Amino acid sequence: MNPDQYVQDKAASSGSSFYYAFLFLPQERRAAITAFYAFCREVDDVVDEVSDPGVAATKLAWWQAEVHKAFGGQSAHPVMRALMPHTKTYGIEERHLQAVIEGCQMDLDQTRYLDFAGLQRYCHLVAGIVGEVAARIFGQTDERTTEYAHTLGQALQLTNIIRDVGEDAMRGRIYLPISELQQFDVKAHEINKREYSDRFTALMRFQAERAHGLYDKALALLPAIDRRAQKPGLMMASIYRTLLREIESENFQVLHQRISLTPLRKLWLVWKMQALGRM
């Protein structure tokens, strides 16, 4: 299997909504974003799939070294061999990839966040930076698009956090800030035991309103000159915001299940943005 086949399989097998947004891109841009997404999946999988924290830390350290070597002209892993030919074209720098790894390291070192400012740092690394790189690959021409992409990345990550509260708790992580759990009088053990309450619903509604605010802010920040090029990001916004509304309609029943959209519904949302330019 050559590097391009490897990253294609990695992206396709993930089942992620991101894959749908790549479908309408020109071949070279699609190859670049697929390789970058495969890199993100590789390092994220280290945290999610390796049960021993020491082994996971060692693997992330290996990835740090591999990224550094790749930018020095010595890539070994098929993901880096697929990604490196696109780095100069789209302005992808070593610092971008190292930031994503740093964000994954936070998952090993920290399972709780005291306040939203701390959570924002995590979202900046694992989602904001990813949004910035994606915007460059999609065809950014205006510097202001960087802030749009970073804000949208954070909105997507907060939606993930809302969707995955139950699954993350099973892995020993609660991303909801401690200060906000206290504000709504929700105890960590209630989340771990999958106990619903009006207090939990109010807490989650608060989280959803923050995410909606970030979606609105991101869309307002996108310069008109880049709107057409950034359609893949807008497709993601459409899919994830629809998911957020679905979670709201089910009254935030996220502790015992993973609420998701069907592939057909995702394709419909992607097609609507591509063909009609609207969410």
TrEMBL record:
GO terms for molecular function: transferase activity. Coiled coil: none annotated. It holds the Pfam family SQS_PSY. InterPro entries: Isoprenoid_synthase_dom_sf (IPR008949), SQ_synth_HpnD-like (IPR017828), Squ/phyt_synthse (IPR002060), Squalene/phytoene_synthase_CS (IPR019845), Trans_IPPS_bact-type (IPR044843), Trans_IPPS_HH (IPR033904). It is an enzyme of class 2 (transferase). Keywords: Transferase. SUPFAM superfamilies: Terpenoid synthases. Its EC number is 2.5.1.103. This is Presqualene diphosphate synthase HpnD. It comes from Comamonas guangdongensis.
